[in-house]
Amino acid sequence: MRIRAISYDRDLKIVPNVWVCIPLVYWVLVGKGRTLGGSVAKLTIKVTILFILVTSIGSAQAPRGQQRPPRPGVKTPGVQIPISELKPDAVFEIPGTPDWIAIDEQVWVSNRPRNTVARLDPKTNTVVEHITVGKSPCSGLAAAFGSVWVPNCGDPSLSRIDLKTGKVTATIPIGIGDSEGGIAAGAGSIWLMTDKKGTLARLDPADNKVVAEIQLPPGSFTVAFGEGAVWVTGTETNVLSRVDPQRNVVIETIPVGKTPRFLTVGGGFVWTLNQAEGNLSKVDVKTNKVVATIELGVPGGGGEISFGEGSVWVTTFEFPITRVDPKTDKVLQQFKGEGGDAIRAGLGSVWLSNLRQGNMWRLDPRRIEATVAK
After folding, report:
1. CATH code for the domain defined by 80-370
2. Mean pLDDT calculated for residue range 294-321
3. Which end of the chain is more exposed for a tag (fewer CB within 10 A), N or C?
4. Where are the alpha helices (DSSP H) in the chain?
5. 290 in helix, strand or coil?
6. pTM of the model
């Protein structure tokens, strides 16, 4: 019997690993110290039980009723382009599952199964080092206050890496609200959700202590900072919460699209990626109102969004890059094919982590804009 190992995938959460099945295989073949010389009937019973157990594990992880809906993408003629037409300026090999991205003068990429964060040098386009952090880094990265801040779902904890030395200077025990979340820096603090009940924690980087906790709607997971406020998506309540960092209070609760998860702030707006319908909500920070809903055709779990280099950038599996004009709210390009999982714009480039391919792409936004459907 051949059992295939299945690894971590943000689109499907955690799926079965071969290590779960190894003890069962040993029990079938060896039993209590016996060889295969036992009766055929007993072996048949064991194989049957093993089959039921392995099948049950797979079924529990991906029940038929919860399968991801198909992603049709945008149907506007000339918008969809094969990802094979796009040529990266650099490819960084990061064995494992490169995922969340943070950018300062260098680029940082988390790698959950390896318990590491990779540091990339944008001047030489090389992977400088792989830094060991806590168990199962997840839920975003943030570069601020001379450090990279790494949430770890396995411990749970928050690792702090010195930007200059690449050394872990602190490991802070703290809850992580969800593996699919986010961490933000702003107003002299680090912000992250610490449980599924809606607790937003504010940490002081001077002493790594929680100095405030703010109650948000349950099922709020992803945090961003911009336009003088903390913004948090309420994935289970279909809202966007606006927190005043001066008073540590929620000042607005804004209805957005269904199942908002990831978000970005830029151009005077907050943009939420709504997983249920695969669209964007564009929220005006002056009025706290949704002023546009942009259809992307990418429903389902996973994905990421970033603002920068003149565009809003979205990544999902099947459509690694979708580019939106923040002024006209039009989808200008949508690249279809393999790749994607997290995306960031910065240092004059677009950075795309390809979780399933084990690498990171660096792309010139001008090259992306110049790539057209044939």
Report:
1. 2.130.10.10
2. 97
3. C
4. 18-29, 40-61, 365-370
5. strand
6. 0.84
